[in-house]
């Protein structure tokens, strides 16, 4: 099971155990707790095996989405990815700001900006990943963390982004220290690009909050970009 599903199972089992202990006091039948526990465990098993954890992501996302702070962090994080990808000329194919939107779009993850990764995948499969292309993707992957840090002084998201960077470096036999240095470098590069185009970034955040399509987001950026990446 995913960590999200495991956490939900643990919470569910705790609540069911609590209901069994309090059942006699509240005059609840023990069958209620047993049936509820079996149903929840069955759901999480089906979710993991059949839906790749999408159900658990949806449940967690529903509760997280109730927080205005969480929604703000997500859109600013993803706008960072979008802006920097645009500046580095990495094609964007779509975006989703929560698990439900990702589910409707047929994505397996909980949301985010989707890129056309064909060039990267081809070079990885051929074992000939160029340093220039890898650097561009590193900056894009770390751009969400950079954007969130600029807005909130620290980032809560970005675990999956860091995993991508570390996985490719590990594949190329780089040490954890190399990964940390590359991560810090990429965050700094992304931060510089966002700060240099802050007006365009803020306009993009507003556009993504309104769920404008990628083509319209491109037009907004094209009218506001001041400094393009080289």
Write a short abstract of this structure.
The chain has 11 helices and 2 strands. It is mainly alpha-helical and 230 residues long.
N→C terminal distance:
43 Å
Could you list the spans in which at least 5 consecutive residues all have pLDDT below 50? 1-8
* Strand/helix succession: HHHHEHEHHHHHH
Please report the number of helical segments: 11
Shape designation:
globular
> Roughly what percent helix?
over 70%
What does the main sheet amount to?
A: 2 strands, antiparallel
Strand content: under 5%
Structural class: mainly alpha
Oligomer: single chain
InterPro entries: Peptidase_M41-like
Protein name: ATP-dependent Zn protease
Transmembrane segments: 5-25
GO molecular function, one term: peptidase activity
3D structure, described in words:
- The protein is mostly helical and 230 residues long.
- 74% of the residues lie in helices and 4% in strands.
- Strands 1-2 form a two-stranded antiparallel ribbon.
- The model is unreliable at 1-8 (pLDDT under 50).
Top keywords for this entry?
mainly alpha; disordered N terminus; two-stranded antiparallel sheet; Peptidase_M41-like; 230 residues; membrane
Question: What does the secondary structure layout of this molecule look like, with pairings?
Answer:
Layout: H1 3-26, H2 30-50, H3 54-64, H4 68-87, E1 92-96, H5 99-104, E2 112-115, H6 118-126, H7 131-152, H8 159-171, H9 176-196, H10 198-209, H11 214-224
Antiparallel strand pairs: 1-2
Protein name: ATP-dependent Zn protease
InterPro entries: Peptidase_M41-like (IPR037219)
GO molecular function: peptidase activity
């Amino acid at each position: 099971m995913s960590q999200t599903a495991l956490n939900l199972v643990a919470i569910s089992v705790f609540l069911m155990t609590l209901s069994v202990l309090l059942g006699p006091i509240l005059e609840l039948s023990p069958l209620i707790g047993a049936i509820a526990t079996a149903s929840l465990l069955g759901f999480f098993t089906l979710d993991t095996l059949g839906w790749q954890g999408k159900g658990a992501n949806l449940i967690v996302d529903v509760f997280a989405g109730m927080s205005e702070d969480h929604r703000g962090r997500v859109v600013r994080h993803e706008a960072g990815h979008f802006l920097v990808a645009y500046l580095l000329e990495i094609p964007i194919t779509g975006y989703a700001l929560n698990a439900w939107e990702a589910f409707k779009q047929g994505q397996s993850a909980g949301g985010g900006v989707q890129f056309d990764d064909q060039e990267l995948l081809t070079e990885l499969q051929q074992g000939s990943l160029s340093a220039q292309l890898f650097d561009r993707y590193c900056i894009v992957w770390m751009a969400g963390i950079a954007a969130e840090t600029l807005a909130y002084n620290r980032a809560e998201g970005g675990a999956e982004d860091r995993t991508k960077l570390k996985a490719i470096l590990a594949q190329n036999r780089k040490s954890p220290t190399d990964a940390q240095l590359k991560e810090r470098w990429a965050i700094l590069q992304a931060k510089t690009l966002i700060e240099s185009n802050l007006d365009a970034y803020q306009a993009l955040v507003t556009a993504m909050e309104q769920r404008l399509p990628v083509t319209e987001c491109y037009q907004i950026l094209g009218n506001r970009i001041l400094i393009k990446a080289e």
